[in-house]
Amino acid sequence: MVLSGLIYISTNQNSCKQQMIEQVFRKSEEKLEDFGLRSSPGSEEKLEDFGLRSSPGFLYNQPSTLVGRTDVVSMTPWLAPIIWEGTFDPTLIDSIYKQHNLTIATTVFALGKYTRFLKDFLESAEEHYFVGFRVHYYLFTDQPEAVPEVKMGENHHLTVRRVPSLDRWQDISMGRMEILEKLIKNELANEADYIFCLDVDAKFYGRWGVESLGRLVGVIHPWFFDYPRDQFSYERRPESQAFIPAGEGDYYYTAAAFGGSLADVHHLTKTCWEQLNIDIANSIEAIWHEESHLNKYFLYTKPSKLLSPEYLWRDINAAVGQVKIIRFSHVAKNNAEVRPNV
Ligand SMILES: CC(=O)N[C@H]1[C@@H](OP(=O)(O)OP(=O)(O)OC[C@H]2O[C@@H](n3ccc(=O)[nH]c3=O)[C@H](O)[C@@H]2O)O[C@H](CO)[C@H](O)[C@@H]1O
Ligand SMILES: [Mn+2]
């Protein structure tokens, strides 16, 4: 479970030619409060001045006050938007965000047999994920040599980092919180504006862009979006730090995709990692591991933006009418075959 003292592999930015650099996490002078407030490189703009500015003469469909999606809810009761196809204009929102030189850090983990998912994940991401915006993937793996060569689009970069192998898939999944916490704290302050953390056993089929950006972003789990809260698979044992009592809960969020500003995601990962460690000390493991802790976190620190299950579908789910486009989807996998343990 201890995943520190990593060997970093930095890659040639546009291909996966790897060059080994040994390094330990460096202590950063940056204050966490500074996250999200940095000046974008090469730009006079500061994010605190970030206005949703549009250019004169730029034409797009008139927004309506009366006509829109009526088959889904596009706002939470705390007034965070829930993003569905038809709730935003991609051309308009791209033009607004293009005025800021944003970088979206994106973490992905591929240990053991999960390296087999990398090719499809990366190739499909390069087709659909923040196309035209700066993206820096941080790929953590125990086998850098198994990372496929995938051509990166303009302003998309990939850094591969070696992490030790682990025997339990649960430890790999949960250990992501610790690695993310350290990555954000020690390295990203001057490198990125937003971060997303994505499962690797998934593939992009449609646009995932700036409409997904926000301070704290949760994705509604594709299995539970139409379930009553008492049937959510929250942790129900009060002994666990992830415990959510009956009668509470908003949505069931997936841990396969979440993100937001560096400061907000840093706080999330730090808190979840602390809670996971309290559980370890008390010899209890939450039913869905870090996903249970993430759900507890999002219940009491509400996301400022939610992504509909379009942003994480499952290839084995039947289609439903409300999901007009599948943007990102979990591939069907044989858990017993790909995981190091059952
Ligand atoms: C849809 C959904 O909500 N998925 C979550 C779910 O099952 P999943 O079945 O999606 O978990 P999973 O097996 O995909 O593991 C999560 C992630 O850990 C990494 N990994 C895991 C095992 C391994 O041998 N090598 C490796 O690299 C990989 O990035 C993978 O995508 O529950 C997990 C923890 O209980 C995580 O919260 C997942 O995000
Ligand atoms: Mn997964």
What does this structure look like?
- The chain is of the alpha/beta class and 342 residues long.
- It contains six helices and 13 strands.
- It has helices at residues 90-97, 118-128, 169-188, 262-281, 290-300, 335-338, and strands at residues 7-11, 18-22, 82-83, 103-110, 134-141, 156-162, 194-198, 202-204, 216-220, 253-261, 305-307, 313-314, 328-330.
- The strands form two sheets. The protein has a ten-stranded mixed sheet.
- The two termini are 17 Å apart.
- Bound molecules: uridine-diphosphate-N-acetylgalactosamine and manganese (II) ion.
- Uridine-diphosphate-N-acetylgalactosamine binds next to β4, α3, β10 and α5.
- Manganese (II) ion (MN) binds at residues 199, 201, 256, 330.
- GO terms for molecular function: hexosyltransferase activity; metal ion binding.
- This is Globoside alpha-1,3-N-acetylgalactosaminyltransferase 1-like.
- It is a single-pass type II membrane protein.
- An alpha-L-fucosyl-(1->2)-beta-D-galactosyl derivative binds at residues 221, 291.
> Any idea what the radius of gyration is?
20 Å
Specify the biggest β-sheet.
10 strands, mixed
CATH topology assignment:
Spore Coat Polysaccharide Biosynthesis Protein SpsA, Chain A
Low-confidence stretches: 1-34, 36-44
* Small-molecule binders: uridine-diphosphate-N-acetylgalactosamine, manganese (II) ion
Average pLDDT taken over every residue: 88
Instruction: Output the structural class.
Output: alpha/beta
Order of helices and strands: EEEHEHEEHEEEEHHEEEH
Say what oligomer this is: single chain
CATH architecture: Alpha-Beta Complex
- The coarse silhouette is globular
Q: What is the number of helical segments per DSSP (H or I, 4+ residues)?
A: 6
Provide the CATH top-level class: Alpha Beta
What is the percent of helical residues? 10-25%
> What's the end-to-end separation, in Å?
17 Å
Number of DSSP-assigned strands: 13
The figure for the number of domains is: 1
The amount of beta strand, in percent, is 15-25%
Question: Strands of the largest sheet, in order across it?
Answer: 2-1-6-5-4-7-10-9-11-3
Can you tell me the CATH superfamily? Spore Coat Polysaccharide Biosynthesis Protein SpsA, Chain A
